[in-house]
Structure of Transmembrane serine protease 9:
Amino acid sequence: MRPLLGSRKIVGGVTARRGEWPWIGSLQFQRLHRCGATLIHSKWLLTAAHCLKGDPSPTNWAVSLGSVLRSGVGALVIPIQRVIIHPAFNGSNMDHDVALLELAVPAPMSLTIQSVCLPSPVHRFPKHTECYITGWGSMREGGSLTNLLQKAAVNIIDQPSCQQSYENLLTPHMMCAGSMGGGRDTCLGDSGGPLTCRKPSGQWFVAGVTSWGHGCGRIGFPGVYTRVTSFRKWISTYLPF
């Protein structure tokens, strides 16, 4: 899902290599892919609150990790033990679109399963930071989901530029990434997945959670992501760091 405001798959991307994005998981409802999720600790994942709308009970949810395939070969499927939706999530304007998922058992770390770094509340992601979106969503607006994980390089778009596109729909808890010229974006099925950025030191950080947008890859309407730094303190009330 990425709601229209915009449900989201990667538009303008290429197929990822096995183990290239070891922190992404396929969030599955009754064994069917619903959204992306990001491993931030051996027992915890970050996703979008809107992905869990309608059934926040953990019973029917699981996460598939360690494979470029949405399901099947090479994937480790772990049930969800607890779903924590941000208490201020607003489904009408998508503000505070973030949720935590606690796994029933810790994910075993390997070459294909690893957690990504969480930024501090004051971490900055400058405009020219190397950033990528990843997911199993549609490759074009109105298309079907893909079975192979896709990736695309995107630019962080400064808040004033994005405000021009979305006006008062954009809140301080949101950030934009993609291309103002269109063509590279998340789409339906990518929601909840990571916008990850690499520091010059080589460390990867999760900067955003795929949330919404106007269509997929449209000119002048980049993807909108939940700003992780805005929720770092909330996350640390549940995580051991």
Q: What stands out?
A: Confidence is low (pLDDT under 50) at residues 1-9. The radius of gyration is 16 Å.
